[in-house]
TrEMBL record:
Coiled coil residues, start to end: none
GO biological process, any: lipid biosynthetic process
Domain (Fatty acid hydroxylase) ranges: 60-213
UniProt KW keywords: Membrane, Transmembrane, Transmembrane helix
Pfam family, one: Polyketide_cyc2
Domain of life: Bacteria
Species this protein is from: Pseudomonas guineae
GO molecular function: iron ion binding; oxidoreductase activity
InterPro entries for the chain: Fatty_acid_hydroxylase, Polyketide_cyclase/dehydratase, START-like_dom_sf
Protein name: Fatty acid hydroxylase superfamily protein
Amino acid sequence: MAYNNDNAQAFRARYRDAIHPLYNPWLHAAFVLAYGLTCVGLLWHTLDAVALWEWLLVPLSLVFFSWGEYQVHKRLGHNKTRFGQLFYKRHTGDHHSFFVEGQMRYETLRDWRVILFPAWLIVLYSLPLLGVWWLLSHIDGNLAALFAGSMLLGYISYEVVHACEHLPAEHPVARLPGIRQMRRLHALHHRRELMHSRNFGIVHPLMDWLYGTLHWEPEPTYQQNRQQHRIRLTRPADAVLSYAAAPAHWPEWHPSSLRIYGREGALLADEVFEEDIHAGGRTGHLRWDVLDYQPARCWQASARGDHGLGLLLTYECIAVEGGCEFVRTLEYGFDGGLMRLANRLLLSRRIERESQASMQALRAVLERSQPAQ
């Protein structure tokens, strides 16, 4: 995963540099929604005394849209063809390089450029639909309007749900049950070994289930809770990260860390260590695996503990004038329902306070000492 995430960060930097400076993400999204809903409104304004059975065309049309989306996604988005060369480049070349499993969230609003389809595409998509509506209206005006309008609703739902699948995990919409499941399926689709063969559905998994391409794995335990804290430090990024990424130093600045069992210095990817902790009012023991270390940029490790506890800890350093910004992201969760309830009622608030205290302690330690070597 570290290799893919590293590549994704480099690609993100290049992609963002290439975005036109006048690009406006709000205008992009607003145009797609406004144009699509306006077309639906105008089409359905022509409806007259719709019978109950005629309304059944709406879900049937949405299922038909999902079938078409599945086929286009699978056959053109993940197979290079002469006809779909531009779509393949934008989807597999750009979107799947920008987002990889473990790094699915957008970081700035301008990242919507690689999530949403080009704004002009909904206009191009609507033209043949309007032609179909005009032809079918000579047979049955209600059915023509319901079909064309529903197909446009399918397009809009694709854009909205796909955007939700790249929201930050802590966003309230991302935690809604249906969205949460589709976010997980989409994250699995972005896994390198699965993206050409599994989970092509964006809005729902019906077509993947019918065609046998549905792949599901439970979320990692640590994805249940996420806490992030930032501080500005008057120390170089490389010195700050090399100090924080040395677990032997943790008892000096983190109130939850009691003792570290491992070597001195910043630990590299694939190294292991253990830790005695007192967090959230509970004593425990953690077994850590270092996942990634990029000097002056980021350090990441995962851990398993007592009571089904799973942790993912990420340190990031961002160089700023006069020093750096240090970002600590803690993701954690429990396997058992009883501990999940205890965390919701009590532990999470204590862990939040301890994390905030650790950041202030880190500032104090670093500001009264020389930069770590």
